[in-house]
Amino acid sequence: MSSKPLLHSRILHRQFNSFFVPKARPLPYGSQNRHALNARLSSSTATNDDSEETIHYDILESVESIWGYCPGGYHPLTLGELLHDRYRVIHKLGYGSSSTVWLARDEQSDQNVALKVGESKRRTSEVDIITALGRSQSNFFNVSGEMMIPTVLDTFKIRGPNGVHPCYVTTTCGPSLRDLKGEWSADLFQIDVARALAAQLVLAVELVHAQGIVHGDIHLGNILLHNRPNFNKLPVKQIYKRFRKPQLQVVSRADGRPNPRGVPSHLVTPIWLGKACERITLAEARIQLIDFGDYHNGLDYMECSLWNSSTPECRFEKPKPPSFPSDVWAMACTIWEIIANFTLFEKYSYCADDITRDNVEVLGMLPPEWWSAWGARAESYREDGTPIKKNEIRTWEARFENSIQKPRNKRGMPLIGAREREAIFNMLRPMLKYRPEDRCTTRQVLESEWMVQWALPEYEKAKRLPWKSLR
């Protein structure tokens, strides 16, 4: 056995594969620094004669990677383009590592819709899964009578210079919780909103699990807020006036030569449909769980969690498919982020040892066989689990104070009481058991004290609140 724990590269190099990810805002400080240090982007693009050349592009911000525009990759859509003789592209909603998502006007129904265009190489059963879930239970409906998962309105394929691309159409949604909280989750929801959002997340995952489906990629970027009731009927001019016209960024090669075939001349900055995180009201706390593209049937391995919330078994055991327990682990990390202004496991690191060290700080010693296999353990811990440098350990309780109580106090928000704090701990601990077979189920999470006494009552209250239309 290797002295280093196993960490699959899929976890570390996977971008957010979210339906609507970035917004037209300045990038986080760390990203700005990286862009300042790297004034050029490099990409390897296949040319028409199938040879490979390295092409350098001028840096662009808050848009998808230009690397994705290659044979097998993204389709180069343009604003104003008509797809399937029906859907007029009017803006961009977002992008992920395997798709771009556009705001389009359905010229048959005269309504706005979301149009997801996948990479041509991407083979996914997402549409079939969403369709099956939509048929399964009326229980998926949330507070406003809309689904907690997308409703597929249409599917088709388009052919372009980079291949044949799967497309599907859904009703539109607003920003993701990741967008609202910022890349580092630094912003805070009001506590009643956070409770209602967490309750709906658990309800949605429980309903998905009840159909025998593993989501496989639960994080803030895959939880969207619904748009206001009349957004889909807004005329295009009104959308541009209220939310800003599309902003184009020129795609240019550093050497001044023409872009390769299949690379667009411009990229579109995604529209921002949200507002400040703390201004989201309880009436607006209506979610949709998205991105079932990484669901898989157990025949092959794919670890989809973001690196700092990746499950410990993916580092110490043979590759396994995502599972109900891995969803529960990811859901625990996501609930913490909904409440807090930072992640529970704080190491934004590409190093497996850093992630494991962070897990141990919060949850204690690993199971014996993993503890023995962790080659870097001696750098931080003695054999019996005692930390070598106690002053560097950030316990569960310390993280609660620093990521929840202090930021809320600083912003003049109500603090979480001692009883509720203990209820949160008592809910999350069984969700974060090291061994997947020891973790609780989503049904047991719903039956926890915090869900019953705090989160679900706020969700019930949200159902009774009126939701204003856009004017």
TrEMBL record:
Pfam families: Pkinase (PF00069)
Domain Protein kinase: 87-451
GO biological process, one term: spliceosomal complex assembly
Keywords attached to this entry: ATP-binding, Kinase, Nucleotide-binding, Serine/threonine-protein kinase, Transferase
Catalyzed reaction equations: L-threonyl-[protein] + ATP = O-phospho-L-threonyl-[protein] + ADP + H(+); L-seryl-[protein] + ATP = O-phospho-L-seryl-[protein] + ADP + H(+)
Domain of life of the organism encoding this protein: Eukaryota
Enzyme Commission identifier(s): 2.7.11.1
Gene Ontology molecular-function annotations: ATP binding; protein serine/threonine kinase activity
SMART domains: S_TKc
Residues the record lists as binding ATP: K116
Annotated protein name in UniProt: non-specific serine/threonine protein kinase
Species classification: Eukaryota, Fungi, Dikarya, Ascomycota, Pezizomycotina
